[in-house]
Amino acid sequence: xxxxxxxxxxxKALILTLGLFVGILWISLPRSYATDGxxxxxxxxxxxxxxxxxxxxQPVAETPPEPIPGKIKYSELQxxxxxxxxxxxxxxxxxxxxxxxxxxxxxxxxxxxxxxxNDPAEVPAEAREELRKALHLLLxxxxxDNMLAKILPExxxxxxxxxxxxxxxxxxxxxxIYGLQNKTIPAVEQATYLIVLENIxxxxxxxxxxxxxxxxxFKKISEAKIKIPDTVRKELKLRSMFRLVSxxxxxxxxxxxxxxxxx
Length: 263
Known about the structure:
Elements lengths: L1 H27 L9 H19 L17 H5 L3 H22 L21 H15 L8 H14 L3 H17 L5 H18 L7 H12 L6 H8 L9 H11 L6
Helix pairs in contact: 4-5, 5-6, 7-8, 7-9, 8-10, 8-11, 9-11
């Protein structure tokens, strides 16, 4: 009986000792390691929220629209509205100024420049090409809604400032005549060349007598004796564009109404 009593007391003492040890250990731990884990969760949550806030408010830099890749197609431009076309053209103009500034860091921004202040010799070829691409893009869009007259003046102002407008028209005329006469070019691309020539004739008709360079372009189109390929006629009829006249016939008629010989 006595042995059992001492055994019972020993077990009690052991339990109390273990309990006391655990209590001291719990008290000595930092509060952030509380057994419920609430403070640990709170700290982790705050860090996650902070990270989320940082990533969610990153400012997005305003950049001009990317240029149209590959071959320009009238069918892709036809569905673009005024705002979309204006945004594209202004994107090319912004890239023109970026190229120009990169070549000559001292050059002022387009906000302070006026036509006539630029020396064409100081403008790098890459910058000039951006404006030529913009002109090509604008002329390649069918103009049933007369959008060309609304957007062209802004682009022309930049091109006239460095004296490349008529030169660009001339090179686009050569490219378009060649494209229409080359039977290996797909019909959609040939149709685009046709629209470029039609827009040049329509938009610059009132100015044909103003400069020798424009007159030369009209005569070039007239003398090319362009015949619209059947594949192009079929292509454009799918887009409900039925009134197709050879650019050469149109140019010749315009020259005659202005009292100018086509030769």
